[in-house]
Design brief:
Shape: globular
Strand order of the largest sheet: 6-5-4-7-8
CATH topology of one domain: DNA polymerase, domain 1
Helix content: 40-55%
Strand content: 5-15%
Number of strands: 15
Largest sheet: 5 strands, mixed
Distance between the termini: 48 Å
Length: 712
């Protein structure tokens, strides 16, 4: 990659050029983000996975830009118009809009007013006006009257069209206008359709304006959605007179001032037309798209952080689970799962109206808890969720049985998906949904990777943002979480394994198939027996896979196999076996890290090894905590201003956080009610965090509840 790109990436990623160059080399060798950030710290200078991902993103952006440059240079060269100065400007360009500005005058054109005028032979007249040679434009125009150009005014109009297009294609003028538009306000006005009931939700934007450079991401995305749906129109409140004067001044600086009033009038008319008809619509669209790109990035960042928190939510671990997918009319679907998440039983109970078979339901739950030695109960938080939780808590179960409310978001998507059908081909969607609820309590990460993140109810305008950029962010987030936690090689599903560094869908299926045919893996090295899993894939994935109870304890740690010999030397120097060293913080404390630095093992790698040896396979996630809603409220009519209530954070956005307080509508803690003015909600709260809130307002008509954070 060219040095100018490396330097640009370094600036954007907050890294040094040598770090960027080494990352690019590692990517070229087949390195993955988790592997590079975890096991190649000497080469990256300790860059974390976010920085490494940022480098890869910009590497791909500039790779595409370089391809675009070669296409542009080829096109201009074929037209015989490529000069050394133009080539140098194109090759040194780092901004896509500036690159397209340089290309604009040479790009093959569709039919325009300027091309029509040129076809009529009016370009020489335009040249005379452009170079200020036609002191008397009307006199000069007489020479161009033909059957196609019947009058002087027709000739001058065509010449002005040509000049207008030239001005609109001048790179410095376009860039100056971009800067001017970026300082203006975006304005919206209601359309006739806004009076419809569907338009009511956008009424805040019916007569609205805001500086385009400072507009909050959620406001811009909502505004653009309202425009797409036909409820408002938007524009940037540009100043045509001021812009025209600036363009005229720049023109005169380069060409000189017109010698006559007639010539000045023609130039000014061409400039005014150029701005209103060509420059303003084009630049306005670019600046709004630019603002949307920033809004997309901000929204996607919120989505990515929410997803990270959701995937790293506290698991209850390998417990025997009774899971309930609640419902009123159709009943509550009940499943029992063993400690590995295998389905043991499913049935339906009807504790709620209209059937209200409470006694039968109580008997069924109590019997299942005893029969399957249930340790925890997972209850979906959707329709009838609160009512079902209240019912189960009154059943009189053993105190050792813990009860959890679990987010249902995405469970129905999973149950109807190809993944759900593949896992449970003989069960219907209701059973699959209940199983998903139970499994996501046991291990949220292992279960949620099966569901499209956009179905998890944690986004902010996720369908309005750049879908390619969103997918890149979500894939990175899932991959980062999976590899941070590590994966049990002998129990992981193919849907979880595919996110392990270097594996992917095909190798994940091969691993599961090999495991089914040959039994559990005894050692990491056995992975090399899996069809199509070669040395490079093994290098990338091995450190993130765990084998419980392996003969070599390092196979159940984050120590990479390439460092087993180094750990063996540490143990030998202490006069103990590796098994005695692993987990023995006393022995590990005697090791001098500097003594084992050498070759490609630097101090960062040695320190990582010692840290892992002290607490091998440590799960970074917290433990799941029980939670209970207030008994005072069960529906929105019970909620009163001034109440202090417990709640669970269900979604975090740029403008605040939504909290489930145990009724069928989530309340909103606006960003202004988080405790400190201007606080980023994601810096204060985490998804599924248990909080205490105060009710500030209750709008029964719109079913909205305003909250203030008390503690969390």
């Amino acid at each position: 990659m060219k040095q100018l790109y490396i330097d640009a990436i370094a600036e954007k990623a907050g890294a040094k050029p040598w770090q960027v160059e080494n990352c690019i080399d590692l990517f070229a060798e087949g390195g993955t983000i988790p592997f590079i950030s975890r096991y190649r710290k000497e080469k990256t200078g300790g860059l974390d996975d976010v920085a490494v991902a940022d480098i890869r993103h910009w590497m791909e952006v500039f790779d595409e830009m370089e391809k675009r440059k070669q296409t542009i240079l080829g096109t201009i060269s074929e037209a015989g118009k490529l000069t050394p100065e133009l080539q140098g400007a194109i090759e040194s360009c780092l901004v896509a809009s500036e690159l397209e500005d340089l290309y604009l005058p040479y790009r093959p054109k569709r039919k325009t007013r300027a091309t029509v005028a040129a076809a009529k032979g009016l370009e020489p007249l335009a040249d005379q006006l452009w170079s200020l040679q036609a002191r008397r434009p009307a006199e000069a125009a007489k020479a161009f009257i033909t059957a196609e150009v019947p009058s002087v005014e027709d000739a001058l109009a065509g010449a002005r069209d040509i000049i207008a297009e030239r001005i609109a294609e001048t790179a410095p003028i376009r860039e100056h206008q971009r800067e001017a538009f970026r300082l203006r306000r975006i304005v919206s006005k209601a359309t006739k359709a806004a009076q419809s009931p569907e338009g009511a939700k956008y009424r805040s934007y019916f007569d609205w304006n805001y500086p385009i450079a400072r507009i909050p991401s959620h406001n811009l995305l909502a505004l653009l959605r309202a425009e797409n749906e036909g409820f408002v129109t938007t524009r940037i409140d540009a100043d045509p007179e001021r812009s025209g004067s600036k363009i005229y001044y720049d023109f005169c600086k380069e060409h000189g001032y017109p010698a006559t009033k007639e010539l000045e009038a023609e130039i000014r008319a061409a400039i005014d037309d150029s701005f209103k008809r060509l420059i303003a619509p084009s630049i306005e669209g670019e600046v709004i798209r630019e603002a949307k790109e920033k809004a997309d990035i901000a929204s996607i960042a919120v989505f990515g952080e929410n997803l990270r928190q959701l995937l790293l939510a506290a698991p209850v671990g390998e417990k025997r689970v009774l899971a309930i997918d609640p419902g009123f009319r159709t009943g509550c679907k009940v499943v029992c799962l063993d400690a590995q998440g295998r389905l043991l039983h499913h049935s339906v109970i009807f504790p709620h109206p209209p059937l209200s078979k409470k006694v039968q339901a109580i008997t069924e739950i109590a019997d299942l808890v005893e029969r399957y030695q249930i340790e925890v109960i997972a209850i979906g938080d959707g329709t009838a969720g609160r009512e079902t939780e209240d019912f189960v808590r009154r059943v009189g179960l053993p105190e050792s049985v813990r009860i959890f409310s679990v987010s249902e978001d995405g469970a129905s998507v999973y149950s109807a998906s190809e993944t759900g059908r593949e896992e449970f081909p003989d069960e219907d969607v209701t059973v699959r949904g209940a199983v998903s609820i139970g499994r996501r309590l046991m291990d949220p990460l292992a279960e949620l990777v099966k569901i499209d993140p956009k179905s998890l109810g944690i986004g902010q305008y996720q369908h309005d943002v750049d879908q390619g950029l969103l997918r890149e962010k979500l894939d990175f987030t899932v991959e980062a979480c999976v590899n941070r936690v590590g994966v049990n090689l002998n129990t992981a599903s193919p849907w979880l394994l595919r996110y392990v560094a270097g594996i992917g869908p095909v190798l994940a299926e091969n691993i599961v198939r090999y495991r089914a045919e040959n039994g559990p893996f005894a050692a990491r090295a056995d992975l090399l027996k899996v069809p199509r899993l070669g040395a490079k894939a093994y290098e990338q994935c091995a450190g993130f896979l765990r084998i419980r109870g392996a003969a070599n304890p390092l196979d159940d740690s984050a120590v990479h196999p390439e460092r087993y010999a180094l750990v063996g030397k540490m143990a030998a120097d202490l006069g103990v076996a590796v098994k005695e060293l692993v987990g023995n913080e006393g022995l590990i404390g005697k090791i001098d890290p500097q003594r084992y630095v050498g070759g490609d093992a630097g101090l960062p790698t040695v320190r990582d090894i010692l840290k892992e040896l002290a607490k091998p396979g440590l799960d970074p996630r917290a433990s799941a905590q029980e939670f209970a809603f207030s008994d005072e409220i069960h529906e929105i009519g019970d909620v009163v201003e001034g109440m202090e209530l417990p709640g669970i954070v269900t979604n975090i956005t740029a403008f605040g956080a939504f909290v489930d307080i145990g009724i069928h509508e989530d309340g909103l803690i606006h960003i202004s009610q988080l405790g400190r003015r201007g606080t980023d909600p994601s810096a204060v709260l985490k998804l599924r965090q248990q909080v205490r809130v105060k009710v500030l307002s209750v709008d029964l008509d719109r079913r909205r509840i305003g909250l203030r954070l008390i503690s969390g």
